[in-house]
């Protein structure tokens, strides 16, 4: 076939001498180019150009096959101008990524990775993930895997996926494994968020408990502190109010623990948790049962001790996390400690 030399737009205003190299691409097309430009942007092309020729007079030729000729033209355009149109990226983004990888043109490679990332769809993701592997583009590969994991149902229905299942079981396995791990990670972080929420709630309940036992709030207060009836709700009133209602119930419930009252048992657990988070070991704490629990802890090694200690640590760290986001004055207020312990009878129900 007689080569068909085309003239191309180098997308630059520079004036060039006569072309001294020809790129041969598919369908016998010849693209005239300049050795100096090619050599300056691609070490691989530079190598080709520097190869000794059979005859001094013979033309220097570089063969680029396996991609459409228009993709090669867009590639050459980039070598001259460092620019690639969105239209070329739409049509030849994958070919350009392959060419930039093979001919070591990092600038174009970055441009293609971004361009392909922006254009990822459930339709093309299977092709792009394979290319990203071949072209050593880990960021693009990861984006593909995430899209696969999040939209697997849609991807599974594509021709690309069906082809992959038939021809590349290893990649299929790899993708399925990633999806599995991705699901596990998602579940884990969801559970972690829920747990953190619970610890934060417990930590708030612990603070309210100390505050109710030391200074009193709207419904309940310590027996030896004069609590004004018209007290305004405190800063964490929704937690505080719930806790006060629970304390009132605990102080007056007929069934109590023995009768298996759920609300009493919950209050009992909050008192116990407090004794694990409480740092006042000199019986100055005003929260009921605090000292008793602490003494019991020292005397008998209970089986569930470790579990409570772990819970207390988590609640304490949730408190640290939330206090970090408070202004300093507020933080000092929150740190205020309480005095004297008298058991549940020390409450005055208002
Ligand atoms: Zn309160
Ligand atoms: Zn009860
Ligand atoms: Zn205490």
Automatic annotation (TrEMBL):
Q: Which residues form the BTB domain?
A: 19-88
For the keyword Methyltransferase, the answer is: no
User: Which SUPFAM superfamilies does this entry report, sorted A to Z?
Assistant: POZ domain, TAZ domain
What biological-process GO terms show up in the record?
regulation of DNA-templated transcription; response to hormone; response to hydrogen peroxide; response to salicylic acid
GO cellular component term, pick one:
nucleus
Membrane topology, from the record: Peripheral membrane protein
Q: Which UniProt keywords apply?
A: Metal-binding, Ubl conjugation pathway, Zinc, Zinc-finger
Q: In which pathway does it act?
A: Protein modification; protein ubiquitination
Q: Where is the signal peptide?
A: none
Main localization category: membrane
**What subcellular locations does the record give?**
Endomembrane system
- Zinc-finger among keywords: yes
Question: A Pfam family in this protein?
Answer: BTB
Say which domain of life the source belongs to.
Answer: Eukaryota
The UniProt entry, under CDD domains, shows:
BACK
Gene Ontology terms for molecular function: calmodulin binding; zinc ion binding
- InterPro entries, per database record: BT1/2/3/4/5 (IPR044513), BTB/POZ_dom (IPR000210), SKP1/BTB/POZ_sf (IPR011333), TAZ_dom_sf (IPR035898), Znf_TAZ (IPR000197)
- Recorded protein name is BTB domain-containing protein
To which species is this protein native? Sphenostylis stenocarpa
């Amino acid at each position: 076939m007689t080569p068909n030399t085309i003239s191309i737009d180098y997308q630059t205003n520079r004036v060039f001498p006569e072309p001294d190299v020809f790129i041969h691409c598919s369908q016998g097309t010849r693209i005239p180019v300049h050795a100096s430009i090619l050599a300056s942007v691609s070490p691989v092309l530079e190598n080709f150009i520097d190869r000794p020729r059979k005859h001094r007079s013979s033309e220097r030729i570089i063969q680029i096959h396996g991609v459409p000729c228009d993709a090669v033209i867009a590639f050459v355009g980039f070598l001259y101008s460092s620019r690639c149109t969105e239209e070329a990226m739409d049509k030849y983004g994958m070919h350009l990524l392959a060419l930039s990888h093979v001919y070591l043109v990092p600038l174009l490679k970055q441009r293609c990775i971004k361009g392909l990332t922006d254009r990822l769809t459930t339709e093309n993701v299977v092709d792009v993930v394979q290319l990203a592997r071949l072209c050593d583009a880990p960021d693009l590969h990861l984006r593909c895997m995430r899209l696969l994991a999040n939209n697997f149902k849609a991807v599974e229905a594509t021709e690309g996926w069906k082809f992959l299942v038939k021809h590349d079981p290893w990649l299929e396995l790899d993708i399925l494994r990633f999806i599995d791990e991705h699901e596990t990670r998602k579940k884990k972080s969801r559970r972690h968020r829920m747990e953190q929420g619970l610890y934060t709630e417990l930590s708030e309940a612990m603070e309210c408990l100390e505050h109710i036992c030391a200074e009193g709030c709207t419904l309940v207060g310590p027996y030896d502190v004069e609590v004004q009836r018209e007290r305004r709700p405190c800063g964490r009133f929704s937690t505080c109010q719930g806790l006060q209602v629970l304390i009132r119930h605990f102080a007056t419930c007929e069934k109590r623990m023995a009768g298996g009252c759920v609300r009493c048992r919950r209050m009992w657990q909050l008192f116990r948790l407090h004794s694990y988070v409480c740092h006042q070991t000199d019986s100055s704490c005003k929260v009921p049962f605090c000292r008793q629990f602490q003494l019991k802890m020292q005397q008998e090694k209970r089986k569930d001790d470790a579990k409570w200690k772990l819970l207390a640590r988590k609640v304490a760290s949730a408190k640290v996390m939330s206090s970090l986001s408070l202004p300093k004055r507020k933080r000092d207020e929150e740190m205020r400690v309480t005095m004297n312990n008298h058991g549940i009878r020390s409450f005055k129900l208002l």
